[in-house]
Design brief:
15 helices; single chain; 4-stranded antiparallel sheet; TIM Barrel
Length: 412
Amino acid sequence: MFIKQYLIKPITLADIDEAEEVCAAHGVPFNRAGWLHILNAHNGFLPLHIEAVPEGAVVPTGNVLVQVINTDPTCAWLTSYIETALLRAIWYPTTVATVSKTCHTIIARYLEETADNLNGLPFKLHDFGARGASSEETTAIGALAHLVNFMGTDSFSGILAARRYYGANMAGFSIPAAEHSTITSWGRDGETAAYANMLKQFGGKDKLVAVVSDSYDIWNAIDNLWGGELKAQVESTGGTLVIRPDSGEPVEIVPEAIERLMAKFGYTTNTKGYKVLPACVRLIQGDGVCAAAIEAILAEMKKRGLSADNVAFGMGGELLQKVNRDTQRFAMKASAICIKGEWRDVYKDPITDQGKRSKKGRLALIKEDGQFKTVQRNTIAAEKNQLVTVFNNGQMVTEYTLDQVRQQALKA
């Protein structure tokens, strides 16, 4: 995304003039001569070579993911110049994708233990994060990172980013869903009518509709409305009603809600010996959801003999916003410099924090016995290097589709 949006467009003289004006007013020096050289010698394209791990690869922390090399000796300054923008373009989606992948791993494990199959896994974690993200672009990048692992999202920006940057006509899906105002607008006495209206408007054979049901009393909604007055309607639509609690302690609410639904709608026991609601009704928990909460909820459900098939999750700020560069300790440092044709290692090694020691030399990423390892490039054959050239002197060299990224992620 970053390469397509920012690096394949050449800079212009107007860009240079504006940057010089802004830097002067800001009180910092501006390398006008260097930028004019890029404009005149390279037609405004950045003389950089960027290589990176194939997108979607699951690589342990502490390894090289991207390496940037200047291709014009007079532009050695350019690699540091691009650090902030490039690092930001990498750490955020990588971290979101990792959070999403962690949830994927947890849910898959409980499905394997308590469900007959993993068919529903792609839709078990839904992106609810758009309203909690810091900007439209943040939402697009983070939502698309989540779609590497799952196919459920309410962050439409990620769908558009997938179309524009990764060749995915439709990367994720959603369903009609009530929110509190579409229920409370009917008044407390009209709660049943509000629920019935959702079924009438959006229910039907093979259709799914989600309805938030805790605007007043979630237990009354389950026991007396969905499981009482509207029970026949729910069972006869031919689709699936997804009930959404939205308050309370999730580890307590979710299992109890499922058990109450089973008391009203019945259940079957699967081949693993766990209880499963009939196909007409399911639950989605979208409040207070994070990886730890998902683990705790599913553990409690398993303890009570309830299959993970009964529930899906929605994740908001915890998915797209509650991350930062230090979540996985991302950093970008100079590692090598060429002086008079001789390459020299460059690194930092502060005595007060060994964890901040940086890697040195021209780096490569290899895979030995299925494990990634960062080494110096001159110690291996070139074909062993897992880093792939993605950008060179203004041109995009390697491009991935979302399908390719997803397939790469599934290899782990």
